[in-house]
Predict the structure of Pyrroline-5-carboxylate reductase.
Amino acid sequence: MSQKVAVLGTGKIGEALLSGMIRAGWAPGDLLVTTRRAERAEELRTQYGVEPVSNAEAAKNADTLILTVKPQDMATLLDELAPHVPSDRLVISAAAGIPTSFFEARLAEGTPVVRVMPNTPVLVDEGMSVISAGSHATEAHLVRTEEIFKPVGKTLRVPESRQDAATALSGSGPAYFYYLVEAMTDAGILLGLPRSQAHDLIVQAAIGAAVMLRDSGEHPVTLREAVTSPAGTTISAIRELENHGVRAALLAALEAARDRSRELASGNG
Ligand SMILES: NC(=O)C1=CN([C@@H]2O[C@H](COP(=O)(O)OP(=O)(O)OC[C@H]3O[C@@H](n4cnc5c(N)ncnc54)[C@H](O)[C@@H]3O)[C@@H](O)[C@H]2O)C=CC1
Ligand SMILES: O=C(O)[C@@H]1CCC=N1
């Protein structure tokens, strides 16, 4: 029997994951989706050939349920789902902040729950999905979760106590890089470059730097030193970054993201 997977609350991250699963070879007929709006359901059916169903039908018919609603909507979704989820279903939550105990308290005794923090580069198979087992999830449940998330990037298992930090670094991480690219493109405009050229130069610098970080085996400090010529241009820029406290700003920013993830733990943060 083929295993069916349902994505419940198919918004931005749910759709990114769905598209990745289809690229990885999952049969659309084995994928169920739920949405709040009928037009959205139709859009997903047309684009991916998947079957829109109600939350209750998803719970009854899918072996694995991936919950991708906002943390603030999770309690309502669970109230609706709980009476329909047999305790042999694997429930995977992609919500920031919410601990596996939140789900376990609302689902039938013994239901296996796995918490995953993916990120949007799953759209281009370069995601990072950080995975933690709840108290009833076994090795087989973790392997099943990895089968779903591995084709769209890397996976990493961590104890659940590290999930808020992982969310700050990895779940939110792509946004920091987009923010930097946006700011540096503006700097290009300030220096008189046309916007499209400034964008292309910074994006290619980001891609080149990312590939070197991943593939060279060198520490980021070594890579930066190789760019930083004595009395040259780079060190003039680095001095300004230090003067403006960019390193301290990043430490504070990621700490704030970690704290926000903790606040979302109750589902109504
Ligand atoms: N966007 C991102 O980069 C990431 C998001 N997440 C997590 O994924 C979750 C969703 O985030 P986004 O995709 O950004 O939000 P979103 O708002 O795009 O998606 C949530 C979707 O759930 C639907 N929904 C809400 N209640 C529902 C219900 N009872 N039944 C069916 N559908 C329902 C909404 O209509 C919406 O389409 C959040 O918990 C977030 O913490 C995790 C990692 C990365
Ligand atoms: O901003 C958020 O809350 C979600 C979780 C991680 C990335 N996006």
Observations:
- The two ends are 40 Å apart (CA to CA).
- The first strand starts at residue 5 and ends at 8.
- The mean pLDDT is 97.
- The chain has two domains: 5-163, 173-263.
